[in-house]
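Hey, resending since the last one bounced:
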Amino acid sequence: MMENLMVQGRCVSEPELEQIRQWLSQHPDWSRWQLSRELARQWDWRNGAGQLKDMAARTLLVKLHERGLIGLPRRRQVPTNRMRCHSGEPIAGKEPIQCALSELGLLVVEEVSTQPQKRAWVTAALGQFHYLGFGGTVGENLQYVVKDGQGRELACLVFGAPAWKCQDRDQFIGWSAEQRQRNLDLIANNSRFLILPWVQVPHLASWALGWVSRRLTGDWQAKYGHPIHLVETFVERDRFRATAYRAANWLCVGETTGRTRQDHFYSLQSPIKAVYLYPLHPIFRARLCL
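The C-alpha cells again:
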C-alpha cells in the first residue's frame, strides 16, 4: 500500500491516485486542461472566493506525471517562453514627464487584473520595457496601473505567487516546512514593477509601492477570499540598487543562492538577488506560523 503523497500542498491518497488513473483510461481524448478542471471539481478544490483551483490541479497532475505515477496526454499547445514574450500593440513613446511628484495632480492607482483591455496594456508595457519581459500570469495575481491627474499612465506593478522556498525569507518568518506548505498562499510576490521610461519623477516609485502595499491585502481578499500578510520581491543585485523599495520601508533580509528552481544538480546559475520583504500585518509571523 502506497503512503500518502504530499503534492502541491495537498495530500494525495492511493484511492485518489487511482481515480485519476481511471479518468485517464476512460477519457483518452481529454486534454490536460479538462483533466485539471475535473480534478478540481471532484475534489471541490477552491480558493477562498469559491473559484476552482484548476491551475493548482494542473500543476499537481504534472508533478505526478513527472514522478511516473500517472501518464498524462501530450500537450496540445507547446508552451512559449512566458518570461520573454509579450503581446498587445506596441506602446509608442510619449513626451517626457519630468516634474516633482506634487505636480502630477491627483494620482490614481487601479487594479486591472479582471479588465482585459487594461490587463493587455500591462502585458504590452512590461513586454516592451521591462528587462525580464512578460508573458502574463498564472494563478492568483493582482495587477496595478498608476496614472496621473491627466489620465496618463506612469507605472504598473504585478503581484503573484511567492517563491516555494527561500532560505533567508523562511528564516525571517521562522516557520516550519509544514507551516510554509500550509500558508504559502498568504504571501505575494511583486514579480514586476515598471516606471515607464519617459517618466522621470523623483519619489514616484516609492509612493507607488507604499500606496499599493496599503491596499494589497484588501484587494486580494476581495478577489480570492483570503488575505496577504507579507510581500516579497527579488532585486537583481548587480543591476539595481533597490532604492525605491528601501525608501518604501521594505526590509532586505538576505540574498538568493544564484540557483534556479529547476536546478537539481547545482549547474543552472541565475543572477544573485537581494531578498526584500514588506509585512502587511503587525503580527504577520503569528498568522503565517499557524
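The two ends are 31 Å apart (CA to CA).

Sorry for the duplicate.
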